[in-house]
Each structure stands twice: as structure tokens, then as C-alpha cells.
Write a structure and sequence with these properties.
The structure holds 2 protein chains of 2 kinds. By secondary structure, chain A is α+β, with helices and mostly antiparallel strands. Helices cover about 15% and strands about 30% of the residues of chain A. In chain A, the strands form 3 sheets. A 4-stranded antiparallel beta sheet of chain A has the order 4-11-9-6, with no helix packed on it. A 4-stranded antiparallel beta sheet of chain A has the order 8-7-5-10, with no helix packed on it. Chain A has a 3-stranded antiparallel beta sheet with strand order 1-3-2, with no helix packed on it. In chain A, helix 1 runs antiparallel to helix 2. By secondary structure, chain B is an alpha+beta fold. Chain B is about 25% helix and about 25% strand. Chain B has a 7-stranded mixed beta sheet with strand order 1-2-5-9-8-7-6, sandwiched between helices. The chains are: A alpha+beta, B alpha+beta. Strand 8 of chain A pairs parallel with strand 8 of chain B, so a sheet runs across the interface.
Chain lengths: ~170, ~300
């Protein structure tokens, strides 16, 4: 854990149990960085060699009473639930690769309807106005544009699976 | 058997007059038949039509629900419409639309409680014979005719059965993103496909079989929507508070699917953005922001 600068656990937006869940979910989904800012509350979690130490630290701290209010959807999006062994491992992306990222939390769909042709496939050329997928959030179907030019090198997400804000959806070449 | 095309048509002039000066309904189109009102509004959106365009169709040949679930209805029985919205809120708040719409339409149905607004135009009973309008036989002006519940996130129910579905879609155009809000409300229809019997109903069925004035109801719905959309950017917490009071699922044990994952638990609360918070058997809380087939376990 990099830092958590809320005044105290009881005053924070997330209780310790929820922070621990986020750490677990980061590990399960191989996420390396988590940042949440809401008003005065800020928390940054960085997953790296000291992750186990951070988990040990959390487990040694007293657990706050269960939160009445749930965390923001960002923190507990369905992407991360019930993530059993290797149920969904995001594809690794080259650090210098250009990607098309999700502008929101939601569920990824490659086509306008089940059985319909995918908006794009590997090898397709895209430009700023090319529709690449649909992200559903709270039953709002959002048509996502490439917002970039290039050729689709890889599809990094699976049909019907939840995605996070900023998560790479496609790798471009 | 309900006679087709004999029912009272929607009165678009009355709708335009009632909504003059309102943002929602500043332009009203009425079509006897469209493939899909949402597809039509999407085309109008790309063509540059302004915020607030409302398109009604007396029948649809390819009406759509979520992920292309087909929605069928007999002509001139129900309300099928879509609205063009060019929001000034950020993309991160687009996901509030379906929740706002569920509340706005619920309020609209309730706002149509005055028999003169909803029932005065009743003309075609289920039997095909004329019936006495409810206004004359039962002048209970203070009685609230309908008390819809919201089944997370955006289905409207009466007596535990669905009578209205909502579809919201966002499109990116060169002039900026716009949204299309589509709704299909069972109003005077009384017959349903076999697979929907037991789970679907209509306002007519829930109000004693009396046909309703769809024009008056349409006006009430659009006013209710406009009112709810005022909370799109700020004050959304009050929307969530009100939806909790109307929730069908809260306090019940539910089952839902997210992709190929099944989840089950007690519907415990709604999150600040409208997500459904489940309390699982191990006591952990889980907030759903997208789920298929959320239903009672």
C-alpha cells in the first residue's frame, strides 16, 4: 500500500474491511494501482512487492463495524466479484502500447446485440469515430468510440465481463 | 379480443399544447408505425435534432429492450416512445439516466391519478362494448389509482408484475454525445404472449379493466420525466432516497447473473449512484452496477 491519508479509519469513506477487499480484488485481478478521491477523502493503493506486507498490516488492525453505506461503485464494481480461480485475468499490456480505454465502469459488449457481428475485430483499422464496443452501466448502453487511429492488435476484455474506469479494452498497433 | 385500430389514437396536438414551453416535448412526433422509436430518435439525433424531441409510435415492428430483447405490442393500446437527450452532465453521470427515468415515469403514472387526466377519455373496454368511464361511476378524486414499484434498476411494476420497460442508449456524434431514452408502457393492452403471462400486466388490467386516456397519461409521464431529470447533475441523492421507498427488491432475497457469474443475497440497500447492494450470506456487501435477470431467489 502506498499511502492512505484519511484522518482515521472511522472517518474515512471506506472502512478497513472494504479496504482489505479492495486489496484482495487488486491481487485477484492483477491490478497494480487503485486511486479514489471523493471530497477530502483520498486513498491510493499500489500493488507491488510490498502487497503482502500491506495485507498483513491490514489483517493485524482492528476491523471497523460494517459500513452502512456501501463504497462507491468504482470500488466494488461487479468486475471483481466472485472472481474464482482464473475466472478472468485481464490480458497484460505492453507498457508502451497504445490502448483504447474504458471511459466508465460497466459491462463490456462487443456487439449491439447477442449474435450480431462485433463492432471491430483484430486487424481492423479504426479512427476517432469508429464504434468499438458498448459499455453498459446501470442499464444505460454506452456506445464507445475509438478516439484514436490505428489497427486493433488485441482485444483485452471478454464479452459480458465488467470493466473498470480506465481499463484498457483494445491494444492498438 | 381487443379490436385492433379501433382504440382512440394518441392526440399529438394535445400533447404539444400541454408541453409548450417544456424542455421535454418541445418537439413531438407521432407515427402510426415505426420499426423502433429508439432507432428513429437515434437517426434524428445524428441529424442534429435538439434536446427534448419525443417520438411516439402507435406500433413498433422491431421494438427493443435491453440487449435487443424484443418488445411487442398491439397498435394504439400502449405507449411507445423515445426521447432525445443532449445532457450537459459529464459522461460519468450518464449511467444515472435509467434510474432517473424509472422515477420520473413512476411519478408520471402516479401524477395521472386524477380520473379526468387519465380515465376521462376511456372509450374501449376489454369486451368491445362501451363502458361507463370511471369518472362517472366512481368519482373518487383523492384515490391514487396506481402505486408503481421500481424493480432495480428500471422496470416498473404493479402488483409485482411488469408494465413498463426502459432502454437508455448513448451515442457519440461529431457534435457531442447524446442519449436516447426509450420506454414501452403497457396501458390498455390486455393480452400478452404466453411467456409473459404471469409476469406482465397493464394499467388497464390493474385499474379494473377500464381503458385509459393514453394522451393524458403521456403528458403526465413526460412531465414526470422532465421533473426527475432536473436531478441528473445535482441532488441525485434525493432520487435514490425516493427510489428506495418505491423499491420492489429491497429487503428481499434475490438472485442475479453478471455475465457467467451468479450472485445471491439479500437486497440490502441502494448505492449513491443507484447500484443494488447485496448482503451475501457471509455478511459481505456487494454492489451491483449491472446485472441480468435480477429476480427474487
Amino acid at each position: 500500500m502506498d499511502e492512505s491519508n484519511s484522518p482515521s479509519p472511522k472517518e474515512s469513506l471506506l472502512d478497513l474491511q472494504e479496504i482489505r477487499q479492495i486489496v484482495d480484488l487488486m491481487a485477484q485481478n492483477e491490478l497494480s494501482y487503485f486511486n479514489l478521491e471523493m471530497g477530502a477523502f483520498k486513498i491510493k493503493l499500489r500493488r507491488g512487492s510490498d502487497l503482502e506486507a500491506a495485507k498483513d498490516l491490514l489483517s493485524s488492525m482492528p476491523v471497523a463495524a460494517p459500513a452502512v453505506a456501501p463504497a462507491a461503485p468504482l470500488a466494488v464494481a461487479p468486475a471483481t466479484i466472485e472472481s474464482g480461480p482464473s475466472s478472468h485475468t485481464p490480458a497484460a499490456v505492453e507498457s508502451n502500447a497504445r490502448t483504447i480505454n474504458s471511459p466508465m465502469v460497466g459491462t463490456y459488449y462487443s456487439s449491439s446485440a447477442p449474435g450480431e457481428k462485433a463492432f471491430i475485430n483484430v486487424g481492423d483499422s479504426v479512427d476517432e469515430s469508429t464504434t468499438v464496443c458498448i459499455i453498459e452501466a446501470m442499464k444505460v448502453m454506452n456506445e464507445i468510440k475509438a478516439e484514436a487511429r490505428g489497427t486493433i492488435a488485441r482485444v483485452l476484455v471478454e464479452e459480458g465481463k465488467p470493466v473498470q474506469y480506465g481499463q484498457p479494452l483494445f491494444e492498438l498497433k | 379480443m381487443v379490436p385492433q385500430f379501433s382504440a382512440t389514437p394518441l392526440d399529438s396536438r394535445r400533447i404539444r399544447a400541454a408541453l409548450a414551453g417544456h424542455a421535454i416535448g418541445n418537439e413531438v412526433q407521432l407515427h402510426e408505425e415505426l420499426a423502433s422509436t429508439s432507432d428513429h430518435v437515434r437517426e434524428q439525433g445524428f441529424a442534429g435534432h435538439p434536446h427534448g424531441l419525443v417520438v411516439f409510435a402507435e406500433s413498433q415492428t422491431a421494438g427493443r429492450g435491453r440487449r435487443e430483447n424484443r418488445w411487442s405490442a398491439e397498435p394504439r393500446q400502449d405507449l411507445l416512445f423515445s426521447i432525445l437527450l443532449r445532457p450537459v452532465v459529464g459522461i460519468e453521470k450518464f449511467s444515472r439516466l435509467a434510474t432517473l427515468a424509472a422515477l420520473g415515469l413512476s411519478r408520471g403514472v402516479e401524477g395521472a391519478r386524477d380520473p379526468e387526466a387519465v380515465l376521462a377519455g376511456a372509450s374501449r373496454p376489454c369486451s368491445g362494448k362501451d363502458e361507463t368511464p370511471l369518472l362517472q361511476s366512481q368519482p373518487a378524486r383523492v384515490r391514487q389509482v396506481f402505486s408503481p414499484q421500481i424493480k432495480w434498476p428500471n422496470d416498473l411494476l404493479l402488483g409485482g408484475k411488469k408494465f413498463c420497460g426502459i432502454l437508455a442508449e448513448m451515442f457519440a456524434s461529431p457534435s457531442g454525445p447524446f442519449l436516447v431514452l426509450g420506454a414501452g408502457m403497457n396501458v390498455n393492452g390486455v393480452t400478452f404472449p404466453p411467456e409473459l403471462r404471469g409476469s406482465a400486466t397493464s394499467l388497464r388490467l390493474e385499474s379494473g379493466g377500464q381503458a385509459l386516456d393514453r394522451t393524458g397519461l403521456a403528458i403526465a409521464l413526460l412531465r414526470g420525466l422532465e421533473q426527475a431529470l432536473q436531478f441528473w447533475d445535482t441532488g441525485f441523492e434525493s432520487v435514490i432516497t425516493e427510489i428506495k421507498q418505491r423499491s420492489f427488491l429491497l429487503g428481499k432475497r434475490i438472485h442475479a447473473r453478471i455475465g457467467d457469474v451468479s450472485v445471491e443475497g439479500m437486497a440490502h440497500d441502494l448505492g449513491r449512484e443507484g447500484g443494488l447492494v447485496l448482503r451475501r450470506d457471509d455478511g459481505s456487501l456487494l454492489e451491483l452496477t449491472s446485472a441480468e435477470n435480477a429476480r427474487l431467489a
